Amino acid sequence: MLREINAAGYRLIKEFEAGPQGNSRPALVPYYCPAGKLTNGWGNTHDVKPGVAITLAQAEADLERNLDWAEECVDKTCPGANDNEFAAMVSLCFNIGPEGFKGSTVARLFNRGDKAGAAAAFALWRKMRASNTAQLVDSAGLLRRRNVEAALFLTPAPAMVPVSVGGAPIEVTLLPPPTQPMPQSVAPEKSAASSKTVIAGSLSVAAGAATVADQANNLSMTVASVTQAVSSVQGLLKLGALSLSTIALVAAAYFTWRYIQKKRRGEVMST
Questions:
Q1: How many domains does the chain have?
Q2: How many CB atoms lie within 10 A of CB 76?
Q3: What count of other Cβ atoms lies within 10 Å of the Cβ of residue 30?
Q4: HSE toward the beta carbon, residue 148, CA cutoff 13 A
Q5: Which residues are CB-contacts of 240 (< 8 A; sequence separation ≥ 6)?
Q6: Domain residues for 144?
Q7: What is the pLDDT of residues 47-81, one digit of tens each?
Q8: What is the arithmetic mean of pLDDT over 32-52?
Q9: What is the C-alpha to C-alpha distance for residues 241 and 235, in angstroms, rounded to an integer?
Q10: Domain containing 196 — which CATH number?
Q11: Is the N-terminal amide bond of 176 cis, ω within 30° of 0?
Q12: What number of other Cβ atoms are within 10 A of residue 266's Cβ?
């Protein structure tokens, strides 16, 4: 039986993949995302025809189909993940594609048992190729998403956490919606341990922690009527600025330590 994303992850994807109107609503009329890809629904890029509108039912069906391949990819690539780790990685896979996820540092370090390193590696997928210049640039929207995904990934969750309580679904809200749609073409990651340029990029994440923290205040997730059985999800949704800032700092420290260790062993050369 195909493993499914939990409620927190499903809500996260709907918030970040919303159309230009935001507020978790799909794009029923196709639009070009910031990376220049024709998109409709919730981040759907398959069989999108310019100027051809879709229905809400079609958007829902496309989301379920896209979630199916992302869930299958993560389940096969990273078996043994708990509910929150799985949901966070499905969100990443949904955004970067199955081939990107299979070869990602997130997947590699998770399977090695280095969960702290895997969480830090989410930030490697923060660049897009600008549609007007074709150059790689940092995306504020991607960085914000990667921080929320890393926070979800790091939130402890017991195995088989129910996604409903007493038959009622968990209500999770991300506020406010992203200011612009997600880029649907994310630049491949670079090895964080082999280049000073990438190390500097990781450090810039830490330097920008205050900005992320300000965003995090507006991205606080709230949970209504959640019992103790899902307290781990509730803990995630109460994460604030300090938690996301800490994640950014841990990411910078981790990659800097990796680089220093490799340099000491003569495995890398200065660039």
A1: 1
A2: 11
A3: 19
A4: 32
A5: 216, 217, 220
A6: 7-161+171-264
A7: 999 999 999 999 999 999 999 999 999 999 999 99
A8: 92
A9: 14
A10: 1.10.530.40
A11: yes
A12: 7
